[in-house]
Amino acid sequence: MFRATLALAALLLSPHPAPAASPHDGTWKGTYRTIRNDNSGACDKLDNDRVSITVADGKFTRRWGGNPIEVTVAADGAVSGSGNNRLAKRSDGGDNNRSISFIGRITNGVMEGEYGHARCAVRFNLRKEGP
User: Fold this and answer.
1) Low-confidence ranges of the chain (pLDDT < 50)
2) Residue 32 falls inside a structural domain
3) 29-55 tens-digit pLDDT
4) What's the domain count of the chain?
5) Do 49 and 122 touch, CB atoms closer than 8 A?
6) Which domain covers residue 119, as residue numbers?
7) Residue 91's Cα: distance from chain center in Å?
8) CATH number of the domain bearing residue 67
9) What is this structure's pTM?
10) Residue 8 lies in a domain
11) Dihedral over Cα of 74, 32, 122, 40: its sign
12) Closest to 68 in 3D by CA, of 83, 80, 58, 79
């Protein structure tokens, strides 16, 4: 009994290893391709052949119109994040508040999905380059 108690105490007092990093942590590189464009000018030049995202602890941040969007990558490969983009007032007095989303999935080493809002969006296609 004394040995079991001593062993349990040693186990409880020993340092616990840090939680494992996300299996998706690392640098992902690829492209954005426009899939929606309302021709407002704000949607111009969304295509990008040099997208680079660094996932750390299953998270990363993207910016749309200067506003940060926190994105989470789940262990099963689901990619999701959202935020709001408040732009300057439109000339017609309409509301420029937009709900921005970054939604996708990692399958077979490829992160694919959609990033943007109802009027402007891109399709992303990224591959993991390294840790």
Assistant:
1) 6-12, 16-17
2) yes
3) 999 999 999 887 778 889 999 999 999
4) 1
5) no
6) 19-130
7) 32
8) 2.40.128
9) 0.75
10) no
11) positive
12) 83
